[in-house]
Design goal:
The protein has 284 residues and is mainly alpha-helical. It folds into 2 domains: 93 residues, no CATH class; 179 residues. Helices cover 74% and strands 1% of the residues. A two-stranded antiparallel sheet has the order 1-2. Strand 1 and strand 2 form a beta hairpin. Helix 5 runs antiparallel to helix 7, helix 5 runs antiparallel to helix 9 and helix 8 packs parallel to helix 10. About 14% of the residues have low confidence.
Length: 284
């Protein structure tokens, strides 16, 4: 009876708990490839997760400031504040990054949206050589010389797929994103061998800017690729994530992801970690 009474007395919290469970289970189903059928361009699981997340957003409202020093704090305000925390926890647990279960068109658009950041990162890398110790310049230049061409090719393929999302163009996009990711991974391993401490730090930091965007694009592309295609992409990946993970700046990556999606840093950090795990499991 107490449980039923609590549900009746705290309907918003109870509803939030139910929606949290729905979003969490849907997230697990999505990661396991369980779709429960198609719904438009997505899946039933994706639709359920999206609806539950939207309802969580409607339930979550910015509470009025609570005077914690007063003895007569409004219980409803306190409850609303706690509910807001629950909402955030639900989003973090679900791992509901915008790329989960998206349509091909929305994913292509997101890849295109990343391109200004990618081009800026590549421009930063192009200027890095002049800031390194003279002996390290040839090593760094040789490791990153292909970034401009790879960046331009990836941007072109993304825009082509957005304009005409066909299987053949998707295959080209898959190949290009893996090619660029491999170039970046190889560059990270090379930069890690630079002896001069200042040069090494600068080189790794700037390559990480490119790595963050390319890894995000890789995740976006794999999210709309078949299991067979993802397996093929993973086979093309010879420099694995495990080899370069010690040189990845996850904190900076999270900051870039948070800025791109307009989300809190904690949310972005969780997404970066989850994507790394997913990529490793897929064989990248």
């Amino acid at each position: 009876m107490n449980s039923i009474s609590n549900i009746w007395n705290h309907p918003k919290t109870s509803a939030a708990g139910l929606l949290i469970a729905v979003v969490t289970i849907a997230g697990v189903f999505s990661r396991q490839g369980i779709t429960l059928g198609n719904a438009g361009t997505g899946s039933v699981v994706t639709l359920i997760s999206a609806v539950a997340t939207a309802l969580l957003g409607l339930l979550s409202r910015d509470p009025a400031p609570v005077d914690t020093t007063a003895n007569n704090s409004d219980p409803s305000s306190t409850a609303t504040a706690k509910l807001g925390v629950i909402m955030l926890c639900a989003l973090l647990v679900s791992g509901a990054m915008p790329l989960t279960g998206c349509s091909a068109t929305s994913v292509a658009q997101d890849i295109v949206n990343w391109t200004p950041t990618l081009q800026s990162a590549v421009a930063t890398v192009d200027a890095t050589a002049s800031l390194l110790a003279p002996a390290d310049v040839p090593v760094f230049t040789a490791a990153t010389v292909g970034f401009d061409a790879a960046s331009n090719a990836l941007v072109t393929q993304a825009k082509a797929y957005l304009a005409n999302p066909t299987a053949s163009i998707l295959a080209q996009l898959q190949t290009q994103v893996v090619t660029f990711q491999q170039q970046v991974n190889a560059a990270l391993l090379t930069a890690a061998k630079i002896v001069d401490p200042a040069s090494q730090t600068k080189a790794l930091a700037d390559i990480n800017l490119v790595a963050t965007v390319v890894n995000a694009m890789l995740a976006l592309v794999t999210s709309i690729s078949s299991k067979t295609a993802v397996a093929r992409m993973a086979q093309q990946s010879t420099v694995k994530l495990a080899q370069v993970r010690p040189y990845l700046d996850e904190e900076r990556a999270a900051a870039m992801v948070a800025e791109h999606y307009g989300q809190p840093g904690a949310w972005a950090a969780q997404q970066v970690g989850q994507l790394e795990v997913s990529a490793a499991r897929a064989g990248f």
